[in-house]
Amino acid sequence: MQPLAKPPETADDAQLARRIAGGDRDAMRVLLRRHNQRLYRTARAVLRDDGEAEDAVQDAWLLAYRSMGDFRGDAKLSTWLTRIVVNEAIARRRKRDRGAEVILMDGSIDADGVADDGNASAPEPPERAAMRAEARAMLERHIDALPDAFRAVFLLRAVEEMSVEEVAAALDLPDATVRTRHFRAKSLLRERLATELDRQLEDVFAFAGARCDRIVAAVMARIEADA
Fold this sequence. Notes:
Layout: H1 13-21, H2 25-47, H3 50-67, H4 77-96, H5 126-144, H6 148-159, H7 164-171, H8 175-200, H9 210-226
């Protein structure tokens, strides 16, 4: 009697690849959920469009699925997958921008964390949620505005926390180029964020809106009660 196979959730990437090559659909579902975020962020960095990035990731996954039997483990599976999605995103960008200059990855040119305050079950105040969403939108806007040469490198290094060597392999760049582009991307972001924050300082702790209405109502209610 053969031992039962381990559930795919406990398998590492290489084991999943072998199971997928053998037709295991459950292993493919696990792999999808394990790497979807990184691959989406990678495609989004190249295409700067949510819908196109999703389409590119789907096409890249299909290519990977059909080629899974060819994966030999010379590189990490995550690096192999990232390279596939990079190529797919560049191809889509070339079609979209046909007639314009296309910047190749080897030439010129993935979490929404919430601080743990020890009270995870408490709902987030609307003002805080709105401020956090605005800050995230501002950061995403400035990441989108990074030069093509820096954007994918920054996302993979700073957001996905891939190593220099992993990013270099995924984007087919020298290690030194990855380090330089990551440093310059961070410098650009700091400069642009500082400029925008300076413009918004005068609005910090703004007192209009729901908070003001709430205090007015409370004070007036107490005045009426004392009358």
